[in-house]
């Protein structure tokens, strides 16, 4: 009997793992994933492969939504700290601070997730898997989404992106995973490197565009390094494939990208997910058209390694298996990865086991995080030009004008959260300057010689007073069906222009839910004159505008200043209806107004500013103009991309009028891209680049203008003089692009940034220590004000005539007091000497003669050189 028992035990040891292992929280995430997938039916497996993953109650699998955003703070989920846009963070050249930003962001994400779980099943933007960072290379300043990235340089992007991933996923700053018996069992969050790969516009044709004829040099030297760093160095848990094709194959069905490079070359083990509805592009008419139908499309995507779809097309995988287009074993591979990730996050286990669930909700939008947002905004500001006017003298009278002077929404960028408050440049200067020392002139537009004056006073609600009748239903109703016969659950009068948001968990009206509601606003407008009336709206959610019962505009998640123009007749009354659907969890907003388009009166502007000693012009662009696949009916913009990089002519006219009036001007440029801020276009004594600076942007810019903070930001991308300097936007070849390959003279070089003090660079020295080169750079603050300097180190290969002029390979931001010196030390590893090797077709440490360049920017006038030789 004993012998039989021993035999049975030995046989049991050779059997497959018990299906019940998935219930054992002490087992590894992979073991648990393999175990639970064995218990699933094919339809259950497929239901887990869409971003809106269904619950499987019999196995204890909860509903989960994989789609969450945290580009610069938790996004689209109500209250959150809003940090500067990533391009601004890149300008800090402070990757440690970026790590702090995303540690704060992951704290807020975990706290918000915990509250969301207590309130019901998780909706979109309430989960633990965040689709950030965007580490595409900003190869061309016309790309509308470039401000979501960390600039044009692969090394800077790699450093910044690595900090983002480590902050989100809960790694220690020292760079490794937690280790040891006291390490957290679960990951804090999962980050996602996107959009893989060779992706940076154009936005208008991204669903059909084919990035082709790209050299191996450009692929491995420019487009892949940041992704490789995030996979190999930061252990990023997700990678999102891009919309466009690469060499004829959709990126989400590219065997070369997803298998050959990502998994085989780099050894990536995590999840690959599609950009949203990108799988539809495989077969829908007018798009890529590489597959005949949905079943073939999903089979190709999963076979080549796209595990998770943002969209709904993967439901066709059951049909694809039945038709023999893909095996169920291949689907198992993807579902195991998905379930392993959920176990890694503790999402499948009791909260008592997951240490991250203890983070209190008080961290969300906290004062501490607000201070960090202000610190980042300050460090991001780049002083491009200063003829001595800055910092402003105390006691002078200051004029403030420009489209971005008092625009809080512009400062939030895109993919944003909603802060408790936002400081604009106007509000900050109003608070900081003595009463009577600030003159603010409103009414300047970004792109037009007109301003819009509200006609809200000419509306009439059912009570006979100006305003709208507002009706709400705490459920989603199709906008075509919303009418007064629906018995609204909430009715009230809207007596001010519609400017509503659920930010901070504040309901729109008593009795209205935070999310999932529908609304109807009705009024009658009587035109005071025969003129064009502009309707503007900004939404988080979906809206429809009807005039006299006719639908004239429909859109969602948009920012537009003139979405529709009505040719009104004097004395005629118009019935106006706005319907709204809050479809994005507990995050909803609607800003709606309409009014007369009044021509810009330059004489009036200069007259109002005549007594000012200095005029600050807050100009530039807006996320309403540059962004993702946008519908913007403005000259010079297409699909969110820019067609030209020059400053809009309407702003140039105001600046010219100020110059003719003899005004001294300080120009503050808010944009997510490089603008051709030449002296001819911008006749100003000083120029500041402020990016989209987040909730504390006004305070930060005001502090720089008034000398309360010494700017130290540096440009993470080249500023060109003219659109004519740029190659064809659709050409992905790197020739004549970015500081590494540009043949002309830039307006402002990559790495450029001035200070209110001066820094002197001494003679650097290099010592060989093992495989590394130890570089020491003496730097001294020779001015009379404390300040920050970013010491930049570049490598050049004089033997490579086809390669880049130089490549950034290290940097450090330092702070020095007046007269203080520092020896800034760098240890350059073999990997930092990586250079494209045409004989092997990849990046390898260069051999032979080389040059180490160091200084304050990529401009050769600001660099010193140390020769080196590598064996």
TrEMBL record:
This is Glycoside hydrolase family 3 protein. Keywords: Hydrolase.
């Amino acid at each position: 009997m004993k012998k039989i028992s021993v035999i049975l035990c030995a046989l049991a040891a050779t059997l497959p793992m018990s299906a019940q292992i998935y219930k054992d929280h002490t087992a590894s995430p992979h073991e648990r994933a393999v175990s639970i997938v064995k218990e699933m039916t094919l339809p259950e497996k497929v239901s887990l492969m869409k971003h809106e993953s269904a619950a499987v109650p019999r196995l204890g699998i909860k509903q989960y939504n994989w789609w969450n955003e945290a580009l610069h703070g938790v996004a689209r989920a109500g209250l959150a700290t809003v940090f500067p846009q990533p391009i601004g963070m890149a300008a800090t050249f402070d990757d440690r601070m970026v790590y702090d930003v995303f540690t704060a962001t992951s704290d807020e994400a975990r706290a918000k997730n915990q509250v969301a779980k207590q309130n019901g099943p998780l909706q979109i933007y309430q989960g633990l898997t965040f689709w950030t960072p965007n580490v595409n290379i900003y190869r061309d300043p016309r790309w509308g989404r470039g401000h979501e990235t960390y600039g044009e340089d692969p090394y800077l992007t790699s450093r910044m992106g690595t900090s983002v991933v480590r902050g989100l996923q809960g790694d220690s700053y020292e760079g490794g995973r937690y280790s040891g018996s006291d390490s957290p069992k679960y990951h804090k969050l999962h980050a996602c490197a996107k959009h893989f790969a060779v992706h940076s516009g154009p936005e208008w044709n991204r669903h059909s565009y084919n990035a082709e004829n790209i050299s191996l040099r450009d692929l491995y030297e420019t487009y892949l390094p940041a992704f490789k760093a995030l996979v190999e160095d930061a252990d990023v848990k997700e990678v999102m494939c891009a919309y466009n094709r690469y060499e004829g194959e959709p990126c989400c069905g590219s065997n070369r990208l997803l298998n050959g490079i990502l998994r085989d070359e780099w050894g990536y083990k995590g999840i690959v997910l599609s950009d949203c509805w990108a799988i539809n592009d495989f077969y829908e008419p007018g798009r890529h058209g590489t597959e005949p139908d949905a079943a073939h499309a999903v089979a190709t995507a999963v076979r080549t390694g796209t595990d998770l779809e943002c969209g709904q097309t993967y439901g066709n995988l059951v049909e694809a298996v039945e038709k023999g287009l893909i095996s169920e074993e291949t689907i198992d591979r993807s579902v195991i990865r998905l379930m392993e990730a959920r176990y890694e996050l503790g999402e499948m286990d009791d909260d008592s086991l997951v240490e991250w669930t203890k983070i209190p909700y008080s961290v969300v939008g906290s004062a501490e995080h607000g201070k960090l947002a202000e610190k980042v905004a300050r460090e991001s500001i780049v002083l491009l030009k200063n003829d001595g006017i800055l910092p402003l003298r105390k006691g002078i009278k200051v004029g403030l004008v420009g489209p971005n002077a008092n625009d809080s929404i512009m400062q939030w960028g895109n993919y944003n959260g909603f802060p408790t408050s936002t400081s604009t440049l106007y509000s900050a200067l109003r608070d900081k300057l003595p009463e009577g020392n600030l003159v603010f002139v409103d009414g300047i537009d970004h792109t037009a010689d007109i301003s819009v004056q509200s006609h809200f006073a000419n509306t009439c609600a059912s009570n006979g007073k100006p305003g709208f009748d507002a009706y709400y239903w705490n459920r989603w109703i199709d906008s075509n069906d919303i009418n007064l016969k629906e018995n609204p659950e909430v009715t009230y009068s809207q007596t001010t222009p519609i400017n509503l948001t659920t930010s901070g968990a504040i309901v729109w009206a008593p009795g209205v839910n935070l999310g999932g509601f529908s609304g109807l606003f009705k009024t009658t407008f009587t035109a005071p004159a025969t003129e064009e009336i502009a309707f503007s709206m900004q939404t988080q959610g979906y809206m429809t505008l009807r005039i006299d019962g006719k639908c004239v505009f429909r859109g969602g998640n948009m920012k537009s200043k003139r979405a529709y123009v009505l040719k009104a007749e004097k004395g005629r009354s118009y019935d106006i209806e706005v319907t709204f659907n809050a479809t994005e969890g507990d995050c909803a907003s609607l800003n709606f107004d309409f009014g007369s388009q009044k021509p810009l009166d330059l004489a009036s502007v200069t007259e109002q500013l005549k007594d000012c000693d200095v005029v600050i012009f807050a100009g530039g662009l807006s996320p309403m103009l540059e962004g993702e696949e946008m519908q913007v009916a403005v000259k010079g913009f297409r699909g969110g991309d820019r067609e030209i990089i020059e400053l809009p002519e309407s702003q140039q006219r105001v600046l010219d009028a100020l110059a003719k009036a003899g005004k001294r001007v300080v120009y503050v440029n808010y944009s997510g891209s490089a603008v051709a801020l030449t002296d001819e276009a911008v006749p100003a004594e000083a120029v500041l680049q402020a990016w989209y600076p987040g909730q504390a942007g006004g305070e930060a810019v005001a502090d720089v203008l008034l000398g309360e903070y010494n700017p130290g930001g540096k440009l993470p991308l080249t500023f060109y003089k003219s659109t004519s300097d740029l190659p064809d936007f659709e050409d992905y070849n790197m020739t004549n692009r970015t500081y590494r390959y540009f043949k002309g003279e830039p307006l402002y070089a990559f790495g450029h940034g001035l200070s209110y003090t001066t820094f002197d660079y001494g003679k650097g020295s290099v010592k060989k220590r093992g495989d590394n080169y130890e570089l020491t750079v003496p730097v001294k603050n020779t001015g009379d004000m404390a300040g920050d300097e970013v010491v930049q180190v570049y490598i050049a290969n004089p033997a490579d005539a086809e390669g880049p002029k130089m490549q950034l390979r290290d940097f450090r931001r330092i702070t020095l007091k007046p007269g203080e010196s520092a020896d800034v030390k760098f240890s350059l590893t073999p990997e930092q000497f990586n250079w494209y090797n045409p004989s092997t077709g990849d990046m390898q440490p260069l051999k032979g003669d080389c040059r180490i360049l160091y200084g304050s920017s990529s401009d050769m006038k600001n660099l010193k050189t140390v020769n080196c030789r590598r064996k």
